[in-house]
Each structure stands twice: as C-alpha cells, then as structure tokens.
Batch of 3 targets.
Target 1
Amino acid sequence: MTTATTKPYDAEEIEAARKLFEGPWDFVWASTKIDDLPPMVGQEIAFAGRSNVGKSSLINALTRRNALARTSHTPGRTQQLNFFRQTDDAERLTIVDMPGYGYAAVGKEKVAAWTRLIHDYLRGRSNLMRVYVLIDARHGIKDVDGAVLETLDKAAVSYQVVLTKADALKASEQQFMAEATYDEIKRRPAAFPEVLLTSSEKGLGIPELRAAIGRVLGERS
Ligand SMILES: Nc1nc2c(ncn2[C@@H]2O[C@H](COP(=O)(O)OP(=O)(O)OP(=O)(O)O)[C@@H](O)[C@H]2O)c(=O)[nH]1
Ligand SMILES: [Mg+2]
C-alpha cells in the first residue's frame, strides 16, 4: 500500500527490481567517524531512523538475507555506519545501515557522536542517491525525526519516508497513518512525495520498496 502522487509500480518494474536485489550481498565497511568512510563506488542509498524502528530488519528483507545486517530487540544495536554491497557486480549499489538516533540510554556522549556522524554523512556524500527515513507506523513522525528531515531538506538530499512494522496495525489504522504521514511530508522540499508502508516481518511493501529504489537508480545512472 502506498500513499502518493507518483506513478504506481507495475508488474514489470516490480520484477526488474526483484532482480536488482538478487545476488550475493556482503558487508564491506563500518565507519564510526566521518573521516573513515569507504571510497564512493557507484550509487549509494541509506536507511535512517530512530533506534529500533527496524532499519537493519528492512535491509535484510530487501536483500533476502536473514542476518546481513544485525538486528536486536534492544535499541542501539547498530552503532556505526555499515556498508553493504553486491559482490557479483560491485559497481552497482551500496546500502548503508545507520545507527539509530534518538536513543538516550546509551549515554549522552555516544548519542551526540552518532547524531553528528549521521548528520555529517547525510550532508556530505555525493553518490548518496536517496535516504530512506524509517518511521514506526504506530508512532508517526516525532521531533527527532523532524530534525533529520530538516537536515536533509537543508542539504537538498532526496529522501523518502517509509513506515515500518505495519503488521502491528489494523488495515484501517495503516491507511490512516500512511495518509497522516504523507500530509506531514508533502510540502517538505527534499521529500519524495510518496509514503511506503512496509512490514519486514510479513514482507508487506518490500517489492514496492525495491521498485522505488530501482526507479531512483535508473533515473540517474
Ligand atoms: N512487528 C514487527 N517488528 C519488527 C519489524 N521489523 C523489525 N522489527 C523488530 O524491531 C526490533 C528492532 O529491529 P532492528 O531491525 O534491529 O531495528 P534498527 O532500526 O536497526 O535498530 P538500531 O540498530 O538499534 O537503531 C527487533 O526486535 C525486530 O524484530 C516488523 O516489520 N514488524
Ligand atoms: Mg540496526
């Protein structure tokens, strides 16, 4: 299900995107500092969002790998920028799993360091084609999310909002949250005018998210 003013994804696009994500994915790099990023190769996309929103799980669902990105019930699992690449055709696409923001229990200093890293990376990566900002479908956009959207808008980095954990909501609630979220982002300058609803657990919206990514890569390659 999507809420959008964009063209729907047809069967052909969905199939092409399925193929795009086939093939072996591998972890290639981890960065804890902005001066320690891997060289830019091909096109990059990144997944950002609050701690525990389901970034690592969504990357595993997209790549059909159970444990490519490490997930956890405990917030704060991902503590660095993790870079994943297709090793059969390495020039194609790099996926970046980001530390979650907005999680206070790891300590103020760590939170500040992560937040700086996230914002610096998002502002300064020229092969970053689009950032997927994940929002828990049960909670909607919070202030900490707003700050990240603001950074992206100011830096003119294209982003798309993706609702996660849709399985935790009834169909009517899913539609309501998708529409409410769309209303919040539709006037933001760097936001792609579509909100995707996903569940990594149930596979909901995953083919569509692949297709959305396929479009982005196709546009600029
Ligand atoms: N119900 C439901 N739970 C999910 C879904 N995706 C992830 N989760 C759960 O949410 C928790 C966090 O998932 P992660 O993928 O580790 O979240 P993250 O955003 O990478 O978290 P950090 O790395 O700590 O920022 C885990 O307990 C997952 O099982 C989903 O689609 N539905
Ligand atoms: Mg994670």
Target 2
Amino acid sequence: MKLLYAPTSPFVRKVMVCAHLTGQAGRIEWLASAAHPVNRDTRIAAHNPLAKVPTLILPDGRALYDSRVICEYLAEAAGDTQLFPTGPARWVALTRQALGDGLLDAALLARYEHTARPAEIQWPQWREAQLVKVQACLADIESQADDLPRAHPSIGDLTLACALGYLDFRFPELDWRTAHPRTAAWFSVFNALPAMQATLPHDA
Ligand SMILES: N[C@@H](CCC(=O)N[C@@H](CS)C(=O)NCC(=O)O)C(=O)O
C-alpha cells in the first residue's frame, strides 16, 4: 500500500494513528506530496479528483480516500473491531469523528484564508466565523471529556486527539487548554500513547 501524505496534515495523522494501532505502519510506503487548495498537486490528482491527502493507493492500483474511508479500510484489513465498534457505540464513535473532522475543516479554512489567499482579498470575518466553529467544537469536546478513553480508542476518540494536536501545531495562540481543563487532562494522557507520539505533526 502507498499513502500520499503530508507530515503536517491532521487527516493524514488519523490514518497514521490507525496504521500504528493496527500494526500496519510498516506495510505502508509513504509518498510525499504537496496538497494545496489552489495549486493542484498532479501526483495526488492522478488518484483522487479532489487532489487531497490522505489518499491510499492499494496494491492493485485502486485508490481510497478520504481519511474516514482509509481508517475503516485499515481497521477491517487488520480484523480490528475496536476502532469502528458495532451497536450503539458505533454512532458515538462516528459522531465524535464528525466532530473532530468538522473542527479540522473549520481550522483549515481559517488557516487557508491567511496562508493561501492573497492579503488584499482576505476576509477577516470569514476566518473569525471558522474560529467560532472551532470554539464551539472545543466546548462540545469539553462536555464529554470525562467519557473519553485513555487507551484503546475508537475512530472518534483518536480523531478528537488529532484535532487537538493540530490546534497545538497551527493555532497555539488559541490556548485551548485554559478554557477546557477536562479536555486538557484527557489529552495529556492520550497524547502520550506510542501511536500519537510516533505521528506528531511537523513541517516537512
Ligand atoms: N475530508 C477529508 C479532508 C482532507 C483534507 O482537507 N486534506 C487537506 C490537507 S490537511 C488537503 O488535502 N487540502 C488540499 C485542498 O484543500 O485541496 C479527509 O478526511 O481526508
């Protein structure tokens, strides 16, 4: 398997955490790429019309995207039943995943407004509105922080952790820990897991 990836991407990190948790990290060849909302990377576009990472290329050449699909694929390939549980726990896990993904979508839109859009056509209210969504997601995470597991996560739990890690990486000025102490306490334990430490974001 080959993964078009970026070491800065929180969505890629979800996949990497799943690969580590299911013992498949060594089976993946990591292909560097440069996803960008304006400058299309043809290396990714050849496999994914959205030209986004993560994109997984299977041995037979078929491509899987996005992170939600790849994570579920990895779980099934490993016979893992914990990342994507069945029954009522499944809907908790998938909704947490949607919460973490949604926080990240908003954070990325806020970041692109600053880093991808020329200064003369930037719209501060757009960035602020995205950051309102980020704050609302943080408040929701805080309300369920005491229920989050410290090990053996579902896809929802690890997505929340990847989202918090991305805020640390790209939005340290938000200082999310101060207003969300229960989330901070959970993250300090969860982030020490080997799968999280092996996938810390960094600039290429
Ligand atoms: N829903 C997608 C989101 C993926 C995504 O937005 N990836 C970013 C990098 S963190 C990207 O490729 N951006 C390029 C673009 O917006 O075209 C997923 O879960 O994989």
Target 3
Amino acid sequence: MSKKVIVIGGGIIGLCSAYYLQKEGHQVTIVDQSNLDSGASYVNAGYLSPSHIIPLSAPGVMKKGIKWMFNSSSPLYIKPRLDIDFLKWTWAFNKSCNANHVKKAAPVIRDISVLSQKLYEDIKASEDFTAHYEKKGLFMLCQTQKLLDEELKLAEMASELGLKARGVTPKEIKELEPNVEINAIGAAYFECDHHSTPHEFMTEMITHLTNNGVTFYTNEKVEDITISNQKITSIKTNKQNLAADEIVLAAGSWSSLLSKKLGLKLLLQAGKGYRINTERHTNINVPAILAEAKTAVTPMNGFTRFAGTMEIAGINHNINKVRVDAIANAATRYYPNLKLTQEEKDNAACGLRPVSPDGLPYIGKSSKCKNLTIAAGHAMMGWSMGTATGLLVSELISNKKTSLNLDTFHPDRKF
Ligand SMILES: Cc1cc2nc3c(=O)[nH]c(=O)nc-3n(C[C@H](O)[C@H](O)[C@H](O)COP(=O)(O)OP(=O)(O)OC[C@H]3O[C@@H](n4cnc5c(N)ncnc54)[C@H](O)[C@@H]3O)c2cc1C
C-alpha cells in the first residue's frame, strides 16, 4: 500500500531512504534546513569501508580522549561541558569502550557495510549513475611499530570475518603505489574497501529523486513535531505545516534535538571533522589512512581529499585552523613530497558526524511512536552504510522482512 512519507534530513541517509521508499511506490517528501550542498555527507572521505569493523567506542578510546583534551591538534577532542545530554552520552560512551562490545559490533558492522557496497553498485548500474566509484582498497599506513602491530591484528580480525585484508611491506606499498614517495614502515591493506566522490553521488541522487516524483523542501527547517496517541500528527516547519502517514528522522547530528520534541532520549553528539582538497596532481592512486594521525586520504574525481579529526564539541561549524593545520602536516609527514598550500587550507570545510555512544547507528521504529522510523547516528560510517540504511528504512515502512536483523541498531536500546 502506498504511503505518504516525510523524510526529515536530506543527507546520505535521508536520500537513500527516499530512494528505496520511492521505488516501493510511496509518495516521498524530503525536508531539509540546508540547500543540500554541504555538511557531513559532502565533506566525508568517500570510503565505503567494511574494514572499519571497530566502532569508535573501543577499548582505550576514552583514555585517549581524556589525554588529548589538552592537545589542540589531536585527532580526537572531547570538549568537557556541563550539559546533561553530553554527560549522559559520555557515560554511555565510556561504558561501550570495551572488548565485548567490539566483538559483538564487528560482524554487524561488516554485514551492513558489505550490503551497502553491493547496493551502491546496484544503484550505479541500474540507474546509470556516472558518479565516481572505485575499488582500489585502502592502506592503513603506519610509521610506528606499535600502530603497525595493531593494524595487522585488525587485518587478521577482518580476514577472519571474511573480508579481504593483509599486511604489506614498504616494498609492496611501492608496487601498489609506484608514483608516490611514502614514508611508512608498513601497512595493513584492506582490499575489501571501495571509494567514491561524495558530492557526485549526492547530486546525481537528488536529480534522480526529483525526476522520479520525490518532493524536496530545502532551506526549510523542521521546528516542531506534534504527537497524539503515540502518532506524529503534524510537522511544523518555518514555512508550513505538513502531515504524513510515516515520518523518517534522518537529521544526522540534529536528530537528538528533534527526538526530544517526541519525548525520546536519542543519545547523540556531533563529531566535527574537516576536509582539505587539492586539485594539484598528487599521483596518489590508493586511498590511505595515516594511522598515527588518523587522517584519511582519498583520490577523488579530479582532486585529492585529506580528511580527519573528531571534535566532540557541540553543534557548530567553526573551523579550528590548528586542527586543519594538523591534517595538512600529517599529509606531509607520510607523503614527504606533498605540501598543502595556505589557500587549500583556507578553503577547508567541515561536517558533523552523528555519533551514538556505542558507535552504531540507530535504525528502527521507536516503540514510543508508531509512525516514526529513526535512521541516524552513523558516526564515522554513514557514507559506507547509507544505501543499506535506506533499504532497511523502506523495508520497515513497507512492513517487509528486513534484509538484516536490526536488534543491535534498535533506537530504544539501553547503554
Ligand atoms: C571529515 C569526515 C569524513 C568522513 N568520512 C567518511 C567515510 O569515508 N566513510 C563513511 O562511511 N563515513 C564518513 N564520514 C561520516 C559520514 O559522512 C556521516 O556519517 C554521514 O554523512 C551522516 O549522514 P546523515 O544523512 O545521517 O547526516 P547529514 O549528512 O548531517 O544530513 C542530515 C541532514 O539533516 C538536515 N537537518 C537537520 N536538522 C534539520 C531540521 N530541523 N529540519 C530540516 N532539516 C534538518 C541537515 O541540514 C542535513 O542536511 C565522514 C564524516 C566527516 C565529517
């Protein structure tokens, strides 16, 4: 049965939800407060990476976060704040930083990421999308033995989970990346990973959805949501009142604010990250994460992107130049012939990752509101999990059996 569905948020999660909902025959409207040209879904590193099987909340991360609080150029920064939501999130995050959680989360992350890769490929093939998409794997480049040992262990774990991954020596790195000087003592090489150019896919998807009857209300902010008898009855934007049979909350880092209007307590913090682009020829051919610096390097269509930092400091888009410099300096440490220019650094942009306390997304129907489906909190992996999340949302709303078991992603889960 065709339903009227409003999707709040037109990032990768909202667009992919709209894509599968529209394919099922539903009438879809996307409402977004922005012009759909910036934010996390545009500045990300473009990895579709099942290799990221370890969630952000892993053993030792909280300790590192506390140590790095006093380092203005560290890759992870948690700004201490006397804010009840932040304190609850920190408590839950700390509880999730354990080996047992990682063991449980890894296969689930693998499953949704692998499904997502397949769905990206299906979309590209069936809709004739020309957006850049490549399968060259991903290096975890290491400069210290400690990190190399950790990354090789991770590659082993990934292999045990059926993902293609192995350790490579500097000689093998040179064979795979012959035209670039790389300063690393070795790497884990995740052949299972793919990469893309985010704005190309986003733009093509928006055009496709528009051509297929999806309505877009852009520069329109959802300000209030009315609920009666456990059902959303109306959505108030700064321009109009809207109503629908089903609502999808895919508002990224803002989802927690909106969930409060429904009496829900979605624990979520914004994790700011930056990107620097260079259009100069870097000759970089294989994507890489500079392991010690936690900086991502992606050869995109016509430019190379350097992305990194996770700044848990509330919802804002302030650019911290010290952290931008840290990303640029890391690039030169690993690629000694590369120096990003002042102009490239001045053009840095940022986006907010929606970070749940256990590093896993919220995908599912909340028991407190019958016509609400939540799809948010994908943290560092929203690009990788976008298509699969969209499919799952559509299956839920269409009352179909979901392609994956969603228990681990339930929005009402306890921390
Ligand atoms: C630097 C960086 C690098 C990254 N690299 C990768 C990577 O390589 N691979 C990967 O998988 N992930 C990566 N990520 C993470 C990924 O980008 C995010 O997880 C993903 O983009 C989140 O998508 P989303 O649709 O949930 O949120 P968003 O893209 O933030 O979209 C949410 C939308 O909701 C809208 N909205 C919010 N509130 C309202 C409201 N009240 N009314 C109307 N509209 C509203 C916003 O305007 C926004 O457009 C990276 C992120 C960053 C910042």
